[in-house]
């Protein structure tokens, strides 16, 4: 790999990181004002939008391939951030962040010191994850136009790999969007439930019949689709760590594992776990007898 190409690969994530840093610092200042660190969750999708737009702005040509590689994360990120904004705004700080703050206070940190720590551990931490997961975008953009010493290479057409990736992305988008819509309807229908927590109804119809987390599965699938689009560009395969990281986060860290930590204590949800796949969609198991 030439030194020119290495410099080109470093320029796109580098500039994206600078813009992300500025946005995250501003968001952190807002969080100080409203005393709510959980607004970073709403920004999660927008962070990917920012990376995609910065990379698209930088790349020469603005070809159909480059527009596709920009549009897929932008559409996903905007939908996710708007959905989370409608769901979360006006409800105060998420209990997860409140618990983190209380643990810090027990260790002797004041609220002000905890807010300062949150900038590095929460805001910059999520910014780094956004940049890493976005690797298919900045690698694909950087490789879609390369001016070397003796030649210029530019991808203008959308080839079979990019078409396949777009189809995979679309399936993932439908899983996430429809799953979120079905969950919203279910929660609205059961909003007046005031019985014991252990007996709360469990959503097990629609897409939720085939996987306990259709929205998380769709999220991961979209990034595998974006990765396939990036693979049309030379060396696009090297961005594979992006979708791997996103899938790992959704399954093992902040998605499925975190959400089910409390839910699995409910008998009805335990029964749901026994019948339904935790991530990859499949037919539900039949209950014995």
Please give a quick description of this structure:
The protein is an all-alpha fold and 289 residues long.
Biggest sheet: strand arrangement: 1-2
**Number of helices, where a helix is a run of at least 4 consecutive DSSP H or I residues:** 11
Q: What share of the residues does DSSP label as strand, in percent?
A: under 5%
How do the helices and strands follow one another from N- to C-terminus? HHHHHHEEHHHHH
What's the rounded overall pLDDT mean? 90
Shape: globular
Cα radius of gyration in angstroms: 21 Å
Number of domains: 2
Structure description:
With 289 residues, the chain is mostly helical. It has 2 domains: 1-155, no CATH class; 158-283. It contains 11 helices and 2 strands. It has helices spanning 3-34, 39-58, 64-88, 95-106, 111-133, 135-144, 160-189, 214-230, 241-253, 256-263, 267-275, and strands spanning 145-147, 152-154. The radius of gyration is 21 Å and the shape is globular. The N and C termini lie far apart (62 Å).
Keywords:
single chain, 289 residues, mainly alpha, two-stranded antiparallel ribbon, 2% strand, globular
Secondary-structure blueprint:
Elements: H1 3-34, H2 39-58, H3 64-88, H4 95-106, H5 111-133, H6 135-144, E1 145-147, E2 152-154, H7 160-189, H8 214-230, H9 241-253, H10 256-263, H11 267-275
Antiparallel strand pairs: 1-2
């Amino acid at each position: 790999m030439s030194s020119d190409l290495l410099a080109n690969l470093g320029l796109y994530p580098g500039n994206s990181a600078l813009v992300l840093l500025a946005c995250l610092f501003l968001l952190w200042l807002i969080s100080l004002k409203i005393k709510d660190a959980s607004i970073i969750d709403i920004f999660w999708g927008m962070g990917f939008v920012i990376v995609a737009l910065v990379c698209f702005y930088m790349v020469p040509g603005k070809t159909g391939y480059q527009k596709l590689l920009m549009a897929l994360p932008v559409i996903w990120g905007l939908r996710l951030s708007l959905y989370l904004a409608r769901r979360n705004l006006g409800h105060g700080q998420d209990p997860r962040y409140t618990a983190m703050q209380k643990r810090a206070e027990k260790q002797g940190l004041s609220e002000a010191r905890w807010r300062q720590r949150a900038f590095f551990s929460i805001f910059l931490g999520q910014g780094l994850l956004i940049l890493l997961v976005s690797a298919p975008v900045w690698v694909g953009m950087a490789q879609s136009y390369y001016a070397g010493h003796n030649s210029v290479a530019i991808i203008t057409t959308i080839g079979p790999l990019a078409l396949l990736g777009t189809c995979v992305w679309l399936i993932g988008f439908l899983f996430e969007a429809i799953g979120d819509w079905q969950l919203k309807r279910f929660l609205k229908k059961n909003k007046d439930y005031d019985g014991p927590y252990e007996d709360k109804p469990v959503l097990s119809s629609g897409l939720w019949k085939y996987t306990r987390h259709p929205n998380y599965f769709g999220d991961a699938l979209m990034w595998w689709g974006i990765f396939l689009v990036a693979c049309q560009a030379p060396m696009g395969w090297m961005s594979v760590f992006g979708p791997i990281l996103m899938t790992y986060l959704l399954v093992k860290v902040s998605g499925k594992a975190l959400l089910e930590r409390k839910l699995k204590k409910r008998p009805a949800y335990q029964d749901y776990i026994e019948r339904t796949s935790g991530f990859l969609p499949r037919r539900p198991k039949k209950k014995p007898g």
